[in-house]
Design goal:
The protein is built from 14 helices and 13 strands. The chain is α/β, with parallel strands linked by helices. It has two domains: 236 residues, Aspartate Aminotransferase, domain 2 (3-Layer(aba) Sandwich), CATH 3.40.640; 127 residues, Alpha-Beta Complex (Aspartate Aminotransferase, domain 1), CATH 3.90.1150. The structure holds pyridoxal-5'-phosphate (PLP). The site of pyridoxal-5'-phosphate has 14 residues, from helix 3 and helix 4.
Length: 377
């Protein structure tokens, strides 16, 4: 059996969790949250806050953007519901833009046409940990005075032009969900470029109070300043993440070696025109979050999924376009609006990729795929 994804938990994570439990580090913003935050500060994210999920990181970002009913935000349709939910919860309307068929990310050349006087935010998504074309997107944002909130949920460990993903946006949101490269079960984070917004975020994240300043001895009592929520994760979960961060390079390099093995071994099938491998633009170093292939038709994709399943290999498809989903259609979208998104998402298949896999597992997956095509599929 080769699972599509598996968390990798070692004695290191277990010992930190026990320490958190033994030392009453149950609620948020304690020792392990601080250790994780320091780690990310060192890594390059100077303003960094852990959150309860990637979704709540996006919701915090949406609050910070001051987006409101009547406003619009630009977003790819090929993404997770959370990317759009966060801004729709503030009453804003999603404006879906096509993807680039090589990266599966928002097509930066198609953004400007969708900007109206109501547009407030551009929300690019780094699919599979492959960065969007941030210089192009930022140029458009600057020209139209828009905020850029990057959904980098899948992109911890990825880089854009040599810098960690997210640093080129006003705000970036990350996920440490169980399925991500670095996991804490449920969890996430935001990076916030502007110091004033960072100060606001600290208040919003703590139920709208300046409790954090109080805990740090900066004020002698704390009070309610803004409309906020509870967006800080338990230190027990941060303890898991801290364990994962101790193995950051090891996890990243092992995933990359599996990804590269898939890429090399599948070359003959691409040369024969049977499938297409991911395309990595020269401006990005990716984090091997997902290895996907594009089949020639939806039927071929579904048949290969089934064939792999029959051989105890769990592969999966990915996002169903948001604009054709029932809610997308309530917002006036319809099938046919974004033909590239619809076509490519119907042909995309993700292969198993996780830290517990070996090169032999990749070879096994390959042999099953090869066998599928041999039988005239
Ligand atoms: C692109 C994208 N955005 C947001 C999220 C939400 O993250 P979380 O599951 O941590 O809430 C995900 C989760 O898979 C995602 O893939």
């Amino acid at each position: 059996m080769i699972n599509f994804t598996e968390p990798s938990i070692t004695d290191q994570e277990k010992s930190y969790v026990l320490d958190a439990l033994d030392n009453n580090l149950l609620s948020g913003d304690k020792k392990y949250t601080k250790l994780c935050t320091d780690w990310f500060n060192n890594y390059g994210y100077d303003n960094f806050l852990l959150t309860t999920s990637g979704s709540s990181a996006l919701e915090l970002a949406a609050i910070l953007s001051k987006i409101q009913p009547g406003d619009e935000f630009i977003v790819p349709s090929f993404t997770f519901s959370s990317t759009a939910n966060a801004f729709m919860l503030r009453g804003a309307k999603p404006i879906f833009v096509e993807i680039n068929p090589y990266t599966m990310n928002i097509d930066a050349d198609k953004i400007e046409d969708k900007i109206t006087p109501n547009t407030k935010v551009i929300v690019p998504v780094d699919y599979a940990g492959i960065s969007c074309d941030m210089d192009k997107i930022n140029k458009i944002a600057q020209k139209h005075n828009l905020m850029v909130i990057e959904d980098a949920a899948q992109a911890i460990g990825s880089k854009y032009k040599g810098r960690p993903c997210g640093l080129n946006s006003d705000i970036a949101c990350f996920s440490f969900h169980e399925t991500k490269n670095f996991a804490m079960g449920e969890g996430g984070a935001v990076y916030i470029k502007n110091d004033k917004l960072m100060a606001e975020a600290e208040i919003i994240r703590e139920k709208g109070t300046n409790r954090k300043q109080f805990l740090h001895g900066q004020v002698n009592k704390y009070s309610w300043y803004m409309i906020g929520s509870s967006i800080l994760p338990s230190d027990v979960l941060a303890a898991i993440l801290y364990g994962q961060l101790q193995r950051f390079d090891k996890i990243l390099s092992h995933r990359l070696s599996l990804w590269n093995k898939y890429f090399d071994i599948l070359e003959p099938l691409e040369s024969s025109g049977l499938l297409r491998r991911p395309h990595i633009p020269s401006y990005t170093e990716h984090n091997a979050h997902i290895f996907f292939v594009l089949l020639n038709s939806e039927t071929a994709r579904n048949k290969l999924l089934y064939h792999l399943k029959e051989h105890d290999i769990t592969a999966t498809f990915h996002y169903l376009p948001l604009h054709t989903a029932p809610l997308g259609q309530k917002y006036g979208c319809k099938p046919g609006d974004l033909p590239i998104t619809e076509d490519y998402s119907s042909r995309l298949l993700r292969l198993p990729l996780h830290y517990n896999m070996t090169n032999a597992d990749v070879e096994k997956v390959y042999s099953i795929i090869k066998d599928f095509f041999k039988n005239d599929n």
